[in-house]
Every structure is written in C-alpha cells, then in structure tokens.
Amino acid sequence: MKNYVYLLIILLALSSCQQSQSQLKLSPEPSPHDLVFDELAASWDEGIPLGNGMMGVLVWEKEGRLRLALDRADLWDLRPMENVYREGYNFEWVQQLWEEKNYKEVQKAFDHTYDQAAGPSKIPVAALEMALDQLGPVESARLYTHHGLCQILWENGSSMEIFMDPEKPLGWFRIRNADPGLEINLVPPPYTHESEASDRNKVTGGQDLRRLGYPAGKLLNETASLDYTQEGWNGFSYQVHCELEREPKVITGRWSISAHYPDQEVQATAAAYLAQDNHPNYETSKEELLSWRDKYWSRSAVALPDPVLEKQWYLEMYKFGAAARKGAPPISLQAVWTADNGNLPPWKGDFHHDLNTQLSYWPAYAGNQLDLEEGFLDWLWGIRDEGKKFTRWFYEADGLNIPGVTTLTGVPMGGWIQYSFGPTVSAWLGQHFYLHWIYSQDETFLKDRAYPWVKEVAIFLDQIAEQDKDGMLKLPLSSSPEIFDNSREAWFEETTNYDLALIRFTYWAAAKMAESLGLADEAENWQTILSRWPDMAVDPESGLMFAPGFPYHESHRHFSHLMAFHPLGMLDVSQGPEQEEIILNTLRNMEQVGPEWWTGYSYSWMGNLYARALEGDKAAEALKDFATCFTLPSSFHVNGDQSGTGKSKMTYRPFTLEGNFAFASGIHEMLLQSHTGIVRIFPAIPASWEDVSFSTLRTEGAFLVSASREGGSNTRVEITAEKGGTIRLSDPFAEGPDVDGSDAEILEIKMEKGETRVLERK
C-alpha cells in the first residue's frame, strides 16, 4: 500500500489549494501584489494600466495635470500599404531577386514602405486631464491588482477611484472631497500640431501623428459634458464622450469611446451609448467589476516562496485579464495602452505573428483562462478570407497562410518579409487552435475550427514544398526570425529549424485531429507527408541549429531554432538520452554565447525553456532577471535592459506585452506540465522551494489541478475532470526521485465528467 490515500469526492464546485484565502479571492484589503506609488508616474508607459479588452486607460501625470490616457482596441487607420497586392510582387519575384543578389529592390518595396509610411496603424484616442494644483500633493497611487481598480489619495483628504466596466465600453472615475468646480477637460492627440515626443520618425519610437493628415477634431469641453469627435482616413471617425455629475464634495465621471467605419453597420456613438438607460450606474458597474475579477482569480492562483516572482505573476495575469476578452480584437503589441506621447505607437501598434501575438496567449492554457483566448481565435477565424487572398497573391497557392504583420482587418502591412510574409505564420497560429482543443476537449471546436484551420495550412505547405536531391521535402526559401534581420542573408536555401519544426508540427497535429474525428484516410495522408520532411538540423556540440550548416554562434533575441522543443513540444527531455542531450547541449551553448543581444521577452522565453528542461533554479533566475531588469514600474515589459546591470546590450525602451505574458507561462511550466501526455506536479521548481502551492491550473485533457508542497514534500493534489477521461499522473508522492519526479511511477486515474479526486500524503 502506498503511503498516501486517495479520496474520491464528487463536487460541482472546485475546492481551493492550501494557501491564504486572500490570494484566492478578492477582498477589500490591499494585496502585496498591488502596484503602489507615492507619486504619479511622469511618463505614459509608467502609468497605472486599466482595461477590459476593448477599452483601456493609463493613469499618469503630465505637466502638473492628472492624465487619464484613454484607448480603444479597434481604433485603426486602415489606409492600404503601398505595394501590397501589387501584381507581380510575389514570392516568385522575391526568389528571382534573391538569386540575382538584387535584394535591395525587395527591401525598397516592402521593408522601406513599412518604415516610411505613417499608416496603416493603431491610433491614439484622447486623454482626460484634471488640474492637480486644485488638489495639492499626491499621498499615494495604488493599482488594486485583484480588483482592477486604481485609487489616488491626496494629502488634503481628497481621493479618486478609476476603473473600467468589465465587459462594456464604459469607464468610470469618482473624486471625493474635491471642489465640485474642479477643472476637467478632454485633450485630443496632436494630429494637427507638433508633439514633443522624440524618435518621431522611427517605427520603434513612433512617428509624428501629423503625418496621418487628419483634420482638427471637434472638441467641446463643458461643465457637465466633454465631447471629442475625430475624422480619420477614408470616412473613419471616432468619438469620445464623457459626462460629469458634480455634487458637493463628489464628482463622478463616466466615459465611452465609439469607432465608426464606413463599410460597417452603424454603431451607436459614445454619446448615444451613455444616453441609454440600460447601462449600469457607478456602484453597479463597480460591483460587476469586483464580481468579474473575483471569478477571474478563482480560476487560478499561485503561492510562491519568492515574492518577486509571485507578485510579477499576479501582475501579468492581471494585465492578461485587462487586455484579452471575447468579442474584442486580440492583444496587439501594446493592446489597450496605445502610446500617449503625441506619436503613433511603436511598430504602429500592429499585430506581429512571428512571436508577439503567440507569446501573449501562452498563459491562457495552464492559467485556465481559455475563454479570454477566444477573442484571438475568433479574430483569426474572421480574417481567413483576407489570409487566403494574401496566400493566392504572394504564394500563388491554395490553402491558408496569414500574413505575419497585419492590420486590424488582417491586411498585410509589409515590413521584413522573411517574417511578415513568411511561409509558416499560420502554422504557428495553428498551434493555438490545437492547444485550445487539447486543453478544452471541445469536440465541436475541433470539428468546426481547429482541424479546418490546420488542414488549410497543411494544404498550403504541401503546395509550396519542393523536393530536394535526396527526395525529401523542403521550402523554396526559408527563414528563422529574426536572424540576419531583413538582409538577403535572412533567407536560407535550406529549410530552417524554425520553419521545419512548424511544418512537422502542422502535419503531426493534422493527423492527430483527423484521427480523433474518425477521418482515417486524411490522418494517413498527413502522416505520409510528415514522413517526407527531414528531422531537425543538429550540431553534435551546440545542439539545435538555425539551419543545416548554421549553428547558433551569436547572441540573438529570438530563439527561433528552439521551436521544436518549446513551444511545440516535438522534442522533449522525456524522449530519451539522445533527445535530452540535444536539448541540454542547445541550452549550454546559448549560455556560452551569452545574452548580450537578448531583449526582455528572451528572458521570459528562456524561463519557459529551462522549465521544460526541468532546470528549476535556472528557470527562476531567468524569470527574475526579466522581472527586475526588463520591466517598468508599471510592470510593462520593455525590450531593453533598464537595470544597468549588463543583462543585455539592448537598452532601448519601447514596451510590448509578449514578454509579460510569456513570464506568466514560465511560472506555469515550473509548477505543472502536461505536454508529454503525463501530468507532472512541480516539475521544475528550485530545490530551495520547500513551500509552494497552486490552485486550479489546467492540463491537456481538460483536467484542473491544485497542489501543495510543504517542507520540501508534496502533500496534496486535487484533480477535477472537466470533461472526463483518464489522467496519467507522475506519482507526486513517490519516494526517492528528484524534484521533477522523472523517475516516478505513472498513475492512470479514470475519472467521470465533473468528478474531483484528492490525493494526500499520510
């Protein structure tokens, strides 16, 4: 008999793991995970972020005025990019110029156009401003992370709350103990006059807003009503409307933002929306927010012995809940926090699918937030026709390949085309359809969305593939983001490990999905095609290479050569000594080469890689480097090292969000893994972590797992089967194995839908 006992419990509600209740549900008390400042931020990217997926706000101070920088996710200038869909500018043309060593013509057509054109681009909205000299010195500013609410206290006894309704295009603020005549104004972006921002002609820093050529907007600031309407490109317009209720000692404000495109169904203006009687009042909206956040945090929680990592995890998951929502556009580079510096956002605030978008949704799976990923998948499904148009134009092929850099409507934007027009973009996006299915076990989603997407990608890849001299398949040209940047050398004659891993994953996933759907002939076809693609290029000493003959020999921010290991899981340390050696050699080589040209997201990704390699100490170290060196006080990820400690020679500031969300995923990988088909509890935690726990993290197969570890020993595991089935679990209480449990017996536990089992050490 094992020295623990199985307890069978039939529960409809999920029980919590053994940790402080304040970490599992909202409370009116402040949390150690809050952001707390003794003054307002002096820069927009250090402002306190609030959001509900569609609308967002940054709270900061500009020139002695409290500033609420407002944003809406679907405000875009959608003017067409020059040369996109131009006849003759296709993959065959690129190949020809590449072979002729005349690649400057390609750069001129696509790279330079992206750099030089102001649009298409995400655009800023406006800001609410209040005169701070009427309120006096600030005592504190706090983001209540578990509430999604910002509170500002002044030394004179005034206070202010700011929050977003959790699911409606509605924002609120309330100021108490203030002069009811407090000056409050809407301030438009400087579309018609020069801003004071730097780097206004650089894509990374944002370009001057005047280049959009917009006319001056219509602005009306009155005592009880603030209104701003801005016309944009080709009939597009947007409206910001704020209503103020001024009472003795209390001012309540509510705002909404509306977007209006000429080819879409007419939507209610922001003013008309606020005039409706069916939206909530301040108290009701706040109650709905607290209830929404309470449910949100009940889906997953962690308790880590490292307070830096624990706080950063809560901040990342907070932002995920503020940036992602079903019914809203997916997370772009800055999501609902567009630059408030008088310029366009860095890299136009667009959708980058060579890493940025994908990493942003990594925490949805184990983090048990699949519903928030649905906005991303719905959007991808909605732009398929545009993707097929691009596929037919550029590759002259059937099937599907989404452009790697797109507008809100999925139109290609150009840029470095090795990646913005790359052949495996939809393959990586397809992994998210696969993961949503495998983590949810939603068979309808598999039939209607996941398999059709992956199948279309497989058809496309088969059409563009060529046969090499050995009879194996290869791509005509291949790339590995973002090796050699956008130079001619960034195209490889041999298929890179990046592309190859994604191709092999596509056919593997297509076969698995087809088999699950009972489509035996299709599954066999995909397996046959898979067998014609070669294995990964491996160097005996340095491990995985960029491509055959191109080892990882210089520091680089994008770990594209490691895709087969993570995130795709085609290679794993569990597959035997040979594969383990390849993975460890790869990681050791990267350590030897060094991180001098890594960015923040590199450290987050490295945390995931170390966790998959079961190296908990190194995973924690990489994630802590991210949290302490590559984040602003607002918790936003910035690309460059801000610490001055030499973690990278990259020091530039523009913020993007993928590093934040990849961090959260790294914590999940340390605590729980299921990608091999075997669930492992605490597979990659540091040896010093004697006391650690987590609540309701999700595994493949749709199992929800909670676990606790006390005094260096696992003490309790709780499993709930959302859909039913058999969970294969590495024995969490086995005597003798390492922390990762790699030598433990595999327990097979058959469970009914909704059933919960608790395993405890005696």
Structure write-up:
This protein has 762 residues and is an alpha+beta fold. Helices cover 29% and strands 23% of the residues. Strand 27 (672-673) and strand 28 form a beta hairpin. It is globular, with a radius of gyration of 26 Å. Residues 1-27 have low confidence and may be disordered.
Shape: globular
Continuous helix count? 17
CATH class of the domain at 32-77 and 118-303: Mainly Beta
- Are there runs of 5+ residues with pLDDT below 50, and where? 1-27
Approximate helicity band:
25-40%
Main sheet characteristics: 9 strands, antiparallel
Question: What value does the average pLDDT take?
Answer: 93
Portion of residues in beta strands equals: 15-25%
Secondary structure tally: strands? 34
What is the radius of gyration computed over CA atoms, rounded to a whole number of angstroms?
Answer: 26 Å
Query: What class, by secondary structure content?
Result: alpha+beta
Which architecture of the domain at 32-77 and 118-303 does the CATH hierarchy give at level 2?
Distorted Sandwich
Major sheet: arrangement of strands = 2-9-10-11-12-19-18-17-16
What is the CATH topology classification name of the domain at 32-77 and 118-303? Beta-galactosidase, Chain A, domain 5
Going by CATH, the homologous superfamily of the domain at 32-77 and 118-303 would be putative glycoside hydrolase family protein from bacillus halodurans
